[in-house]
Structures are given as C-alpha cells and as structure tokens.
Amino acid sequence: MKVCIHYPKKRHQAFFEGARLRKTLKGACEAMDVPWEEELSPTTDIAHFLSPLDEPTLRKAHQKGIKTVLSCFYCENDPDAAFLTGKKEKGISQKSVRMMNEADVVLVPTELLAKKARDCGASGKIVVMPPGVNLDRFCSKWVESDIFPRYFRIRPEERFAVCLGAYEDKKPLASLCRLASLSPQFTFYFFGSKKSLTKRLLTGPLRFRAPKNIVFQPVVEDDLYRSALMHCRCYLLLDDEHPDQMGLLDAFASGAEVVGIGGQEVNPILKNGENSLLFPTEEGAAKALARLYLEKDKAIIMAGYGIAESCALPLFAKQLIGVYEETLKKEIA
Questions:
Q1: How confident is residue 87, by pLDDT bands cut at 50, 70 and 90?
Q2: Does 287 lie in the same domain as 189?
Q3: 3-state secondary structure string, the chain?
Q4: What is the pLDDT of residue 205?
Q5: Residues 305 and 319 in one domain
C-alpha cells in the first residue's frame, strides 16, 4: 500500500495547521512502515486530502481509480484548510459538501461535527477520529525549547499567552483586544494567517488600533511555535464558534493550560475545571489570567496531557492505517 498525502502548495509563507496535520499523517505512515508520497503517481493506492482547495486533485485521483480519504474540520484556524465558512454563523459550503460526497471516506474529529456534516448534506461514509499528536516533538531532545524567548527577547519574568486564528475573523480578534485591555500584566501572541498578504499589510492596521500588549504575528516556523507553547502561561480559545483540534492537542502536549471564552460546545473534549478553564466573558478569563500570572494549575495541565497521550502518534497511526486498509478491502471485495 502506498499513500499520497496531498496538500496545496503554499501560496504564502505559512507553516500553519494544515501543514502540521500533513506532517502528523506522514509520521503515522512512517510509524506503520507505510510508504507515502506528496503527489499522485501510477503506484498510489490511496490519496489523503486535507484542504477544500484540493477538489480538482481529488477528482483526478478518482479518475485514476485511486481511493480517496478527506480530513475535515481539523484545521479551522487555517484559511487554506478550513471547511467551515460564514461570519455570523459557521456553516459548510456546498463546494465542501460536494467534496465530502466525492471522497470514499471522510474523517472528522468529533461526533458533533459528523452530525453537522450530515445535516448540511454529506451522505457518504464518515468516520470520527480525533487528531494525533507526536509527543516526542515537545521534548527537549527534538526542539530547542528556549528558541522562542530568545527570538522575541522575552524576559524570564514576563508572562505571555498564545492564541491562533485567521485575520479575517473579526469576532475573536475583538475578544482578544478586550481581554488584553483587562490583563495589562500579560503579553498576548496571536499567530494567524490571511491569504496573500505581506506581514506589513497583515498586522499593520491591527497594531495601530489594538492594546500594546498584543503581538500580532504571521505564522512562524514549527519549532518556534512549539517553543512558544512550551513557555507560555496559557493557550487561549477566543470564541466558541471555531472547533480547535490541532491547536488544542499541541497545547495539551506542551503542558500549556487552556483558557477558553464562551461555552466551547464545539470543542466537547474540554471539561471546565478538569482539563481547561472556560468563561462566558473576557472579564472571567481576565481573572483566571491574574491567577495564572502567579502559578499554573498542575492538575489541569496533567489532565490535558492525559488527553494528548490518548491521541499519541502510535495509537493514531494504527487507527489511520486501519481506515486505509478497510477502504482498500472494499475495493477488492
């Protein structure tokens, strides 16, 4: 069995969630001694797609008789890999639904999102599979843990939070500005992407209007981002409309405490007071940050790390390859 793990060529400099998911899928194949490639070839048995931009390539795979798998809703912070659209209420476009129905198997991270896909018209096979995380990549053996503080010249006593998003989404950015104004003792690093914009155009207007303790950044290299998670006081979820999968698992694996605003029903893995701290308003989150300024809650961090362990790469790899094998068996049958 040979697997093509396909992802659109980067149109802008961003190693964001879609690229990290691709790296995890490659690692899963390697863990199970399954050869992989990045483009379709005459020897491809299964093609795995991660982006709605890949519909033409998925169709090409079908024309060649190649079985297809599509991962949806794992990377909703990444504009190139997001399947949910809409400013007021997140929905699924007809183009994305069509792509789901063209794939032989659709992978989604939660039952809630599987139901949403079906309610929007997805009629094919849907398999619920949480994302995987390579815990080794958060060990000092594999990442230079101090690279982020050195790069951004962060003082040892400085406390900072990390959050992800897309610069097109105004609601979470407004929430971040509100929270930052209530928490002047913290610095907030927002890493995000927006299609086809340079760093100056991406962050300039925001820097002018936002509180000075927010640092708006384009997406940084993977090792730099992991170092940020390993040193931050907390990982922030800024609204309750975005399913957060890759970001959450990376935060749990790094030992960052998760603080969320809103009910976070879209992230059912979160349990308030058990593996995260959830607040209906920015004012409540600001009070939690005041406590986090002094100390972390080790019990909450360990509960989050337990979730990361349950999604560790070896377990995820077995599940993923099992889906591939089952899909090929149906073809033989």
A1: low
A2: yes
A3: CCEEEECCCCCCCCCCHHHHHHHHHHHHHHHCCCCEECCCCCCCCEEEECCHHHHHHHHHHHHCCCEEEEECCCCCCCCCCCCEECCCCCEECHHHHHHHHHCCEEEECCHHHHHHHHHCCCCCEEEECCCCECHHHHCCCCCCCCHHHHHCCCCCCCEEEEEEEECCCHHHHHHHHHHHHHCCCEEEEEEEECCCCCHHHHHHHHHHHCCCCEEEEECCCHHHHHHHHHHCCEEEECCCCCCCCHHHHHHHHHCCEEEEECCCCCCCCCCECCCEEEECCHHHHHHHHHHHCCCCCHHHHHHHHHHHHHCEHHHHHHHHHHHHHHHHHHHHC
A4: 57
A5: no
